[in-house]
Amino acid sequence: MSDRQEQISQVVVTAEQMRDIETRIFAAGMPVVALMEKVAGLIARRIQNLYPNLKQTQQFTPSSPSSFSSNLRVGILVGPGHNGGDALVVARELHFRGYEIWIYSPFSKLKELTSQHLQYAQSLGIPIYQEIEQLPNSNLLIDGLFGFGLERNLTDPIASAINQLNELSVPILSIDLPSGLHTDTGEVLGTAIRATHTFCLGLWKLAFLQDQALEYLGKVELIDFDIPLADVQAVLLNAPRIKRITPATALSTLPLPRPSVTHKYKEGHLLLICGSRRYAGGAILTSLGARGSGVGMLSVAVPESLKSLLVSHLPEALIVGCPETETGAIAQLQLPAKTNLSSFSAIACGPGLTTDASPVVQEVIESDVPLVLDADGLNILAQMGTIPTLQKRQAVTILTPHAGEFQRLFPHVADAKHDRVKAVREAAAQSGAVVLLKGARTAVANPQSEVWIVPESTPALARGGSGDVLTGLLGGLLAQGLTKQIPVEDIAATAAWWHSQAAILATQERTELGVDAFTLTQYLIKTLSNCY
Ligand SMILES: NC(=O)C1=CN([C@@H]2O[C@H](COP(=O)(O)OP(=O)(O)OC[C@H]3O[C@@H](n4cnc5c(N)ncnc54)[C@H](OP(=O)(O)O)[C@@H]3O)[C@@H](O)[C@H]2O)[C@@H](O)CC1
Ligand SMILES: Nc1ncnc2c1ncn2[C@@H]1O[C@H](COP(=O)(O)OP(=O)(O)O)[C@@H](O)[C@H]1O
Ligand SMILES: [K+]
User: Fold this and answer.
1) Cα radius of gyration (the chain)
2) Phi, psi of 493 (to 5 degrees)
3) Residues that bind AMP, according to the entry (predicted)?
């Protein structure tokens, strides 16, 4: 990947930013017509690669004595704006390459350029239909109804037409965005095309990184049409950054290579506080996640009754058995002699604790040690009052909620279901913490409103214990990274990326059903060895 491609692949834009970038390109002299021609030409070539128009020759048989061949039949869905214009250029190109094309153009008012392309398509003899009921069969549909210009809810008759198109068992390739999705929130505006494949044009739009859009996007692909980096930088200069985490950025954050002369405490000392009689497994998974991070020294505080279990799983770790409550939660921390919380580079606290461990969680929140809080650590923080409690903290805090925990922590922040990116950004700004909002596309925000999003993952992770592994992994990376002055938000983003990549690799080898949390821990290092 070239330097430019790498930079472009990290960029995420809103519809407004895309329009501003486009405006700069046109103002600099690039004709609108030429850009549409270039972009749609790239899409048409990509479609030919994916669906080659190989003549499908019917075999000679006694019952059908003459052999004949047929072309791939492609239906082109055309909207009123330039998304429709793109689709019409694709229609024309595929027509000349021998595909059998028909056009569905239900709008009476089209933008000038779109209207011209429609007129030319008609002059070529391509059939054009206005009514959904008139449409012939097809092998493939190209969706150019709406792109990033869509802002209002879709209503009938176009909404019901989209619903009917979704019912056909034909692959749908969407241009720029499945029609009906909001470009920024990924929300469905009334209804939306369920694409098999979406070609995102020029720069990744925010919708591609929002959970609620995923089931509409299908396979996603960026069509790079050479937007000058200078225009991108000029538009994004003063906006809070949203970045896709790429392998290059994640790998550059990892504590590799290690210096030749070092020792275990220089490679970070992590204290995990986790587990209860009820949730013993959470402590093991968190610890194995931390082991996967390569942290120099690992101490694990658990209720006394779990100590021997943890020792048997993690012979290299220092297991600290603590006095327990009647319910089997950690009652108080009992660190070894000459050790206090400040002895650790970082603490990760929460998995499996139960809310009976609240005095311990309060103690670590009041400490001045960098802290990852997860699971019951978050529930206890929510009970204490998230924002006033965190405002008193001097050291770094990373919160790793899933959507439910997020809601409890930040009940007054924007609805995370409606716009996850906006919600995580507000939560970080208000709390002063780095917030990692877990989900299908995990998003990390820092208090300066910058956001990092994991662009690919697998639903194999939707399984009990996956989050515990992430907490350990993140704690271990934090303990190592802080000693090397790596920014905390980069560490959190890298941990989330690594966790997802391990799950993707495990899924490839074992299917989506084969990625239990313990197995996931075994893929952490395997993932890295594939990258180096
Ligand atoms: N940026 C780039 O670099 C490049 C961009 N390119 C392409 O341009 C696309 C953006 O084009 P666009 O701005 O014309 O908007 P688009 O999404 O086609 O549709 C908006 C139209 O829909 C209408 N409309 C809106 N809501 C509606 C509703 N509910 N129900 C009914 N109608 C509704 C609205 O009209 P309105 O009614 O608001 O006047 C407007 O006419 C982009 O996605 C990409 O494909 C490439 O060609 C070249 C490179
Ligand atoms: N559909 C999905 N696609 C990708 N990742 C997912 C999906 N669902 C959950 N995950 C990931 O799985 C993990 C689940 O964490 P969490 O909800 O804390 O589970 P647990 O508490 O059982 O360990 C998170 O890292 C989350 O991002
Ligand atoms: K579209």
Assistant:
1) 27
2) -65, -40
3) 438-442, 467
Task: Answer yes or no: are the C-beta atoms of 162 and 179 closer than 8 Å.
Answer: yes
Per-residue exposure over 462-480, b if at least 16 CB sit within 10 Å of its own CB, e if not: ebebbbbbbbbbbbbbbbb
List CB contacts of 422: < 8 A, sequence separation 6 or more. 185, 414
Residue 16 dihedral angles phi and psi, to the nearest 5°: -65, -40
Beta-bridged to residue 205, according to DSSP, are: 13
At residue 439, the pLDDT reads 98
Asked whether this complex has an ipTM greater than 0.90, the answer is: yes
Give the ligand with the smallest distance to the CA of 232.
1
Average pLDDT of adjacent 10-residue blocks, the chain of 532 residues: 94 97 98 98 98 66 57 97 98 97 98 98 98 96 97 96 97 98 97 98 98 98 97 94 95 93 93 97 98 98 97 98 97 94 97 97 98 98 97 96 97 87 97 98 97 98 98 98 91 98 98 98 94 81
CA distances 185 to 341, 386, 456, Å, are 41, 26, 17
Pairing of strands 172-175, 197-201: parallel
Q: Which residues contact 244 (CB under 8 A, 6 or more apart)?
A: 9, 10, 11, 12, 204, 209, 452, 453, 455
pTM for the whole structure: 0.95
The strand ranges marked E within 29-134 are 56-57, 69-70, 73-78, 100-104, 128-129
- Residue 43 near ligand 1, beta carbon < 6 Å: no
Side chain identity at residue 512, one-letter code: E
Which of 156, 201, 232, when mutated, tests ligand 1's pocket best, judged by the most ligand atoms within 8 Å of its CB?
Answer: 201
Residues in the annotated binding site for K(+): 83, 143, 179
Give the integer Cα–Cα distance in Å for 85 and 148.
13
How far apart CA 106 and CA 142 sit, in angstroms, is 15
Q: Closest ligand 2 atom, CA of 438?
A: 27
CA of 428 to the centre of ligand 3 (A): 33
Residue nearest atom 19 in ligand 2 by C-alpha distance: 467
Beta carbon of 495 within 6 Å of any ligand 2 atom: no
